[in-house]
Amino acid sequence: MNQRQEFQQFFDECVGTWVTERTYHYLAVQEVERSRTEFVVQSIPLERKTQVLTDNQYPVPAELTDLPGYHLAFETVSEKGERVAQSLNMLFVPQQEETEGLLGDYLRDRAYEEAKPIVSKFRFNSQNRELLMTTTYTRVVSVDSITLITPNLRIRRILNYRRPPAGEPLQEVVLVGFGVEQKQ
């Protein structure tokens, strides 16, 4: 199986309904929060893929029909009873193949931290089935990892860094999140 087929298989196994138990560590205020998220991942048609590209002013790739594109809808309830619901469309555009996997752009019609279209970077490691997504927001840089352990179990890790000045490395971690995600 080639890298792109393994990448597509990863997403094929991610389609469905998932329940996540997460723990967030807010390091700046030394606070820990637990939450439960229920979410649904569905494939999107060609028209929606095109719309995600248009929303991000991104050129339409020749292989658009083959690119992984998904609709994600979720609702999170914190242990304090706070609720957050959101839905968005996403598209993954591979740019480069490496020995272990793929690198490329990850586009969304609505970002998690900021309600606007955004282009991020992804790296998919086919050896350990990890999808690593890096998004630069206004105040933070979010590094989000999804590792598919089995078709029904994923491990999630989120690191948010205070956004450094341009050209500077990521250093100050402000949030660490861990989650166990199980397919229903």
Summarize the structure.
By secondary structure, the chain is mainly β. It contains two helices and ten strands, in the order αββαββββββββ.
In the CATH hierarchy, what is the class?
Answer: Mainly Beta
List the domain count as a whole number: 1
Q: Over all CA atoms, what is the radius of gyration?
A: 16 Å
Taken from the alpha-carbon principal axes, the silhouette is globular
Low-confidence stretches: none
How many angstroms separate the termini? 27 Å
Biggest β-sheet: count, sense, barrel? 10 strands, antiparallel, barrel
Q: Determine the CATH superfamily.
A: Calycin beta-barrel core domain
> Number of helical segments?
2
What would you say the CATH architecture is? Beta Barrel
Helix/strand/pairing category: mainly beta
Strands of the largest sheet, in order across it?
1-2-3-4-5-6-7-8-9-10
The average pLDDT score comes to 95
CATH topology: Lipocalin
Order of SSEs: HEEHEEEEEEEE
Query: What fraction, in percent, of the residue positions are helical?
Result: 10-25%
Q: Strand share of the residues?
A: over 45%
What's the count of strands?
10
